[in-house]
Amino acid sequence: MSRREKIWWWVGGALIVVYCLFPIAWIVSLSLKAPSDLNTGGFLPTTVSWDNYQSILTGGTKDLFLPALRNSFGICLIATAISCLLAMFAAYAIARLDFPGKKLILSTALIVAIFPIISIVTPLFNLWRNIGLYDTWPGLIIPYLSLTLPISIWTMSAFFREIPWEMEQAAQVDGATTWQAFRKVIVPLATPGVFTTAIIAFFIAWNDFLYGISLTSTSRARPVPAAIGLFSGESQFVQPTGAIAAAAVIVTIPVVVLVLLFQRRIVAGLTNGAVKG
Amino acid sequence: MSTTTLPPTKKDAPVSAPAGHTSDRARSERKLGWLLAGPAFLVMLGVTAYPILQATYESLFSYRLTDPDNRSFVGLENYGVILSDPLWWRSLWVTGLITFVTVLVELVLGFALAMVMAKALSSIRPVVRAAILIPYAVITVVSAYAWQFAFDINTGFVNSWFAWIPGVGTDTDWFGDFGTSIFVICLAEIWKTTPFISLLLLAGLAQVPEVLQEAAKVDGATWWQRLWRVTLPNMKAAIMVALLFRTLDAFRIFDSIFVMTAGANGTESVSFLAYRQTISRLEIGLGSALSVLLFLSVVLIAAIFIKGFKVDLSQARGEG
């Protein structure tokens, strides 16, 4: 590659980075603006103010935000754990065993993944009210499985297919017991796939908005995207923009940390499940 | 479950003996397979098949939660009400418009991004890769707010930055009418989902045999010719899979519209219309009928893709 060409690819890469980070930079900048600074039409705050963070973490709107944050973490982690556990068994069967119905399971996962969420919301809304699951954690964990389970089955089967299963037998030939062969050989090979799947499933659950606003009514179970979407502010006289921006930044931090730590794996997981490389 | 969206089943070389003569080993493997995969399968059916059947049943009733005593069987009347209401056709048109515009732009832009990433120098590749995952991982509501506040007449910077463009001034109200609202909504959607498409396309690019590129280069093909005659045809499967998924995903658009316009100025999508009927107006019968119609639309789109464009979904299931 010539020097000139190198510079061009470098510029291209830099443009992509700007494209991806610009709106994030904007919401961060907005969250640091003082109320008097909000309507000036500038990108950057004239002076950095932490008022908005104070308002949602310790101030007047903390009861709107903090319970929602707790709900989101709890509900998303439980939904992710359940779907990873179910998907682990299913993916093992799909990758290793030969049985009819393998295709049926994968096709079902595909259909569930493209299912319009509102078509699930409407019947659940009524049913949950009748059986007391409306505005509870289980009332969200169960429908979240429709988001996390299909992608988990997919991604994990793609990962498990690449495990050299013969190594299990090889270990047994070398004198390991079945359990030892599984624990010492297969588990270490399978863990990265399970872990990556969990991250992707968590992202999808964390992103949910429609279930969140439809199946909850109070801070008992309302997850954070729904809380932000319905944010009313400290009082009707205070513009909620700054507080919303601060809340948006805080819910973005966990996903950014996960992306920075595990970017290579996440890309492998996303593309493995969808297009076989 | 509809069978129209199922990919054609390919008969693999039989590993187990034909039915009737199943060996003990094959039988126990089959049993173990269902034992392990069964729970996941049942849960998937439970959270989708059951609700859609329930919705189909409820769509046959005139039923408002605010007036539960007057629940009565009306047959297909709810469907008649919806299909003869311009609101439904309007929201279907808006949804179709957003889907078409965003998917088209995302495909072109995503391809450009994938090309840059494929060629990016190894020193900056991890940075680019991490950056590209950020829009994918950021929640839709946050992205919608970021774009809304950027274009907002009071808090935004767009009006002051782009005042030099004719028609844009400090008093431009982007959310004041249909066209500009849709423009901002599409922009937010494109920003958020292009990276995902570009990752799928990048994986597709990696599947194009390098020898073919070299051979074409030796034969004197220009960059453009190589793109159209070698690269694109060889990644058709990856493109179609990305297209199918993004189309169906775009068709369910809800979050951005809720945050940015709440359906004002005729920007209501089909999902939003169904949400409003069920959750805001508590019209369970009508809302259910809308849910069923939306589900049928998705099935129809998937069927068109699979039958019409011959998308090979075994690709999508990692069985390629």
Strand and helix map with partners:
The complex is a heterodimer of chains A (277) and B (320).
Chain A: H1 3-31, H2 51-57, H3 62-96, H4 102-113, H5 117-131, H6 137-161, H7 166-173, H8 178-207, H9 210-214, H10 224-229, H11 241-274
Helix pairs in contact in A: 1-11, 2-11, 3-6, 3-8, 4-6, 6-8, 6-11, 7-8, 8-11
Chain B: H1 24-58, E1 61-64, E2 67-73, H2 77-83, H3 86-119, H4 125-137, H5 140-151, H6 158-161, H7 178-207, H8 210-218, H9 223-234, H10 236-251, H11 255-260, H12 270-280, H13 284-308, H14 313-316
Antiparallel strand pairs in B: 1-2
Helix pairs in contact in B: 1-13, 2-13, 3-7, 3-10, 4-7, 5-7, 7-10, 8-9, 10-13, 12-13
Description:
- The complex is a heterodimer of chains A (277) and B (320).
- Chain A has eleven helices and no strands.
- Chain A has 277 residues and is mainly alpha-helical.
- Chain A has a domain at 62-230: MetI-like fold.
- In chain A, α1 crosses α11 (241-274), α3 (62-96) crosses α8 and α7 runs antiparallel to α8.
- Chain A is globular.
- Chain B has 14 helices and two strands.
- In chain B, β1 (61-64) and β2 (67-73) form a beta hairpin.
- Chain B is mainly alpha-helical and 320 residues long.
- The radius of gyration of chain B is 24 Å and the shape is globular.
- A two-stranded antiparallel ribbon of chain B has the order 1-2.
- At the A-B interface, α1, α3, α4, α5 and α6 of A face α1, α3, α4, α5 and α6 of B.
